[in-house]
Request: fold
Amino acid sequence: MSVLNGKKILLGVSGGIAAYKTASLVRLFIKAGAHVQVIMTPASKDFVTPLTLSTLSKNPVHSSFFNQDDQDAIWNNHVELGLWADLMLIAPATANTLSKMATGNCDNLLIATYLSAKCPVYFAPAMDLDMYKHPSTISSFTALKQFGNVMIPAENGELASGLSGEGRMAEPENIIAFLEADLESKLPLKGKKILITAGPTYEAIDPVRFIGNHSSGKMGFDIASAAANLGASVILVSGPTSLNIKNSLINVVNVISAQEMYDACHLYFNDVDVTIAAAAVADYKPKVIAVQKIKKATDEFSIELEKTKDILLSLGKIKRNQFLIGFALETENEIENAKLKIQKKNLDLIVLNSLQDKGAGFQKPTNKVTFIDKEFKIEPMDLKSKESVAVDILNKVIEHFYV
Reply:
């Protein structure tokens, strides 16, 4: 899966012959799973039509501060556009547009949006070779890079003038490859291996019945997805769940019972940097599993149970440098019980859930957690979506390694 998947990309198109390549560029962004909005300078519409880019991006194309044909004259909010984007790419970036970017000469919607953008900005120059080498252009390159913008170097090749040399805008495929490589190199968890457990476990009673719980696995799956988006290589050990996840950085290991989850965790634990135990593992299992379906023959029926192996406890005993995170779902004496679990299981951090909190627990899209670290620092969090909680958890991982 491309690192561009899910990214909100604002493409600025300025008036050069290379603008015709933006149709392919938008198509490649969409194919990579990105969301695209396009801003065109008035001059760029001489080289590629807004209709083409609107059709490919599946969004209206913006060109002026308000739509001339709109009787209500609704304003195209450049600030809103700039804040929407995860990254902005200006391609082609002509000498004229580059000069305006460098000096703040704000006379069109594209430059106004660029000056409002809070996201990383990339630019792909396109011009004739003499223009590309001119001191004023080089000055623009230097200024823009000093501002923190990233230049996608022009390529050598045949130019619109008939000359051949440097100044040709990078091909769309090469622009995509450049962006992917640059974004991946800046991901905070790049090179880290993370083991995550998710979902319930099912402990068989007979061939058709089991002991289980209401865990959907969503919290663990959201953590795995967020970790992969931050560059980590993820091993997701999941109990039975209806959820699916597709990402080349996530290796899903499906298990059913607590013993299977225990075995899978111990198989991978020594090779990971972080383990996040978000699964709701059964504490007990039937001592004897019936070979045949148990018949309803008596008014009363009892099952003798025995403890399952404590996965988190066993990992805490053998951990070396791994950052070990556990979850605690409590109904009473929450803080005290969580602190005891940190000590007993040699955890670095615990994510405490309380069923007393509205919006927390199983089968819900939200969660309300409290972080407690091994120094017993307590940090309560607000009710959030589980996706947001996953990001908060991974921020704790990033802090551990880099702060």
User: Anything to note?
Assistant: The first strand starts at residue 8 and ends at 13. The domain at 8-186 is CATH 3.40.50.1950 (Rossmann fold). The CA atoms of residues 316 and 346 lie 5 Å apart. The chain has a mean pLDDT of 92.
